[in-house]
Specification:
By secondary structure, the chain is of the alpha+beta class. The chain folds into two domains: 63 residues, Integrase, N-terminal zinc-binding domain (Arc Repressor Mutant, subunit A), CATH 1.10.10.200; 164 residues, YebC, transcriptional regulation domain (Alpha-Beta Plaits), CATH 3.30.70. It has eight helices and twelve strands. Helix 1 runs antiparallel to helix 6.
Length: 286
């Protein structure tokens, strides 16, 4: 039987972005004629909203100041959500501690962070809207609000104005998965696979942050986030974020015109203050 080192040696001959190897939980490969239950370890192309699949859309990257303001706004919402779910003490709330690390890495003002934590004490409710957009793409829109009716009406208005609509059942096209994200600079494909094998991750995705910097997303069971995070930290990786994500089961390919329409819709939704995060199943035509 071949061990992980042999697997990684063989993978060096494969094209980047099309890696797929079936592994036992014990990290030992088995021949196809005697394959027991196994998990797939894959390096996926980018599928997530707001990343390099939008590279064809010229207007998607606005001025840096606008992008910076949007990042701070979303981090503020994520702080409020983390405090709502686990309390205001980062020593007792791992999710909040991770978000505060992100805030510091993005140079978010300390006063803004403290204000966000204090304002999270106000009664807020969390909700995920299901929607359909241009070209039949599907969206999940997470909000944090003090008025469900107001947010519902505004999300509905923004969808209709930009070629979308609320669509019950869209959530069924997504799987809830754990996600641990690390910076992707100077990490070779073979090293990324080694890290995934050691951590017990299922998939790896290459993506970018709002400023175009490369990221690696290690996908795992929601119950394994802590284990994968610890393993990556022990391997010297800096954790950008960790938590739950919605990963699409099936993606929809959009041409350039539809991609522009979809990005316009997602921009409009993202600019609404109650929106925390948006997931989609969009893939740009090659």
């Amino acid at each position: 039987m071949a061990g992980p080192a042999a697997v990684l040696t063989a993978l060096r001959t494969l094209r980047r972005g099309s890696l797929s190897v079936r592994l036992r939980a014990s990290h030992v490969c088995s021949p196809p004629w005697s394959a027991p239950p196994a998990r797939a370890l894959q390096l996926w192309p980018v599928l997530c909203a707001g990343h390099n699949k939008w590279s064809k859309v010229k207007h998607i990257k606005g001025p840096k100041d606008d992008a910076r303001a949007r990042v701070f706004m979303k981090l503020t919402m994520m702080i409020k959500l983390a405090v709502k779910e686990g309390g205001a003490n980062p020593d007792m709330n791992l999710n909040l501690a991770q978000i505060l690390e992100q805030c510091r890495s993005k140079n978010m003002p300390k006063a803004s962070i403290e204000t966000a934590i204090k304002s999270a004490s106000k009664p807020l409710s969390q909700h995920v809207f299901e929607a359909r957009g241009p070209g039949g793409c599907l969206l999940l829109i997470e909000i944090l609000t003090d008025s469900n009716s107001r947010s519902h009406q505004e999300i509905k208005r923004l969808l209709i104005k930009n070629g979308g609509a609320l669509s019950e059942g869209a959530r069924h096209n997504f799987n809830k998965r754990g996600m641990v994200v690390v910076p992707g600079q100077n990490i070779a494909t073979e090293r990324a696979l080694e890290l995934a094998i050691e951590a017990g991750a299922e998939d790896i995705k290459e993506t970018e942050d709002e400023e175009g910097q490369p990221l690696l997303q290690f996908v795992c069971e929601t119950t394994d986030v802590g284990k994968v995070r610890t393993s990556l930290q022990n391997s010297g990786m800096q954790i950008t974020s960790s938590g739950m994500e919605f990963v699409p089961r099936v993606v929809v390919n959009l041409n350039e015109d539809l991609l522009i329409a979809a990005s316009t819709l997602i921009d409009a939704l993202s600019d609404y203050p109650d929106v925390v995060r948006i997931w989609d199943n969009i893939q740009a035509d090659s």
